[in-house]
Design goal:
Oligomer: single chain
Radius of gyration: 20 Å
CATH superfamily of the largest domain: 2-enoyl-CoA Hydratase, Chain A, domain 1
Largest sheet: 7 strands, mixed
CATH architecture of the largest domain: Alpha-Beta Complex
Strand order of the largest sheet: 1-2-3-4-6-8-11
Structural class: alpha/beta
Distance between the termini: 56 Å
């Protein structure tokens, strides 16, 4: 398969210095673009990430987002050189870290489109945010993973906490405690459930990510958003509350045009024409919220 020619995002409200934001058909690409610095996050990238996720999320032509890195690394966390030499530049990030108000990943920015992390090389430290918070993770066979926080006198927290929702606890603990002295291979990450596919040869990673994203993009955007909210919401709550919240998302699709279009397209043996994802296509009868629908409670 030949990947579509990348196109810049239309009407880009600000020039990106540390990221590349592209559109390849229905797939948006968010690419870390500081290869000479291991794609680490300096103050500029930290600002641009929030902007880029918001831009891709707001573009109705983008149905799936792929996140990857340029060069030989995927993402290596905060730029420690800038952090040590210019602490003032990182003051806002420090404040957000202290208050648990990070805006790095799709999950942090409440992006409800499917997100694929395509790990092309080394993923270290804060780079694990983007693995923990992606919906699907694939990796080149040459990719490696490590968490060096404790090796530089810092505590591992956010990234490992997220990974413990995806993979065995002991594997996360081992990575957290061995620090920079051991790297996990892509194959081992696959065996532990951190990634769902290892791509070999590594040069095919972008092609495979695009193919997977295009498969996903064929589905109803509204239904996928509701599904993502239900499944991620389940990680926040107990089983009963998660099922109740999931019922609300399920019922939110009742009356949506995609619910009619899907079976009709299947019957007519054609590709469905899905409604664009947006407030104008919100389903449900007037005066009744999805939660009220699911529980049978009506507003008083």
């Amino acid at each position: 398969m030949t990947c579509p020619v990348p196109e810049p995002m239309p009407d880009d409200p600000m020039p990106y210095e540390t990221l590349r934001v592209e559109r390849r058909g229905p797939v948006g690409w968010l690419i870390f673009a500081r290869p000479d610095a291991g794609n680490s996050m300096n103050a500029r990238m930290l600002d641009e990430l929030e902007q880029a996720w918001g831009e891709l999320d707001a573009d109705p032509s983008v149905r799936v987002i792929v996140n990857t890195g340029e060069g030989r690394t995927f993402q290596t966390g905060v730029d420690v050189i800038q952090m040590s030499g210019d602490p003032e530049a990182m003051r806002e990030q420090s404040r957000r870290t202290r208050r648990a108000e990070l805006r790095l990943t799709a999950w942090h920015n409440q992006v409800w489109k499917p997100v694929i992390a395509a790990v092309n090389g080394v993923c270290a430290g804060g780079g694990l945010h983007f693995v923990a918070d992606a919906d699907i993770v694939i990796a080149a066979s040459s990719a490696t993973f490590l968490d060096p926080h404790v090796s530089v006198g810092q505590a591992t927290a956010y990234e490992a906490i997220g990974l413990m929702r995806k993979m065995p606890v002991e594997a996360v603990m081992r990575m957290a405690f061995v620090g920079r002295h051991e790297r996990m291979s892509a194959q081992r990450a696959y065996e532990l459930g951190m990634v769902s596919e290892v791509v070999d040869p590594p040069e095919r990673l972008s092609e495979v990510a695009q193919e997977l994203a295009e498969k996903i993009a064929r589905n109803s955007p509204a239904a996928m958003a509701a599904t993502k909210r239900a499944l991620w919401g389940a990680l926040e709550t107990g089983l009963t509350d998660a099922c109740r919240a999931g019922a609300a998302e399920l019922v939110s699709m009742w009356g949506h045009p995609d619910q009619t279009e899907g079976p009709l397209a299947f019957t007519e043996k054609r590709d469905p024409e899905w409604a664009e994802l947006g407030p104008e296509s919100e389903p449900g009868p007037p005066g009744m919220t999805p939660v009220a629908e699911a529980t049978g409670d009506r507003p008083s």
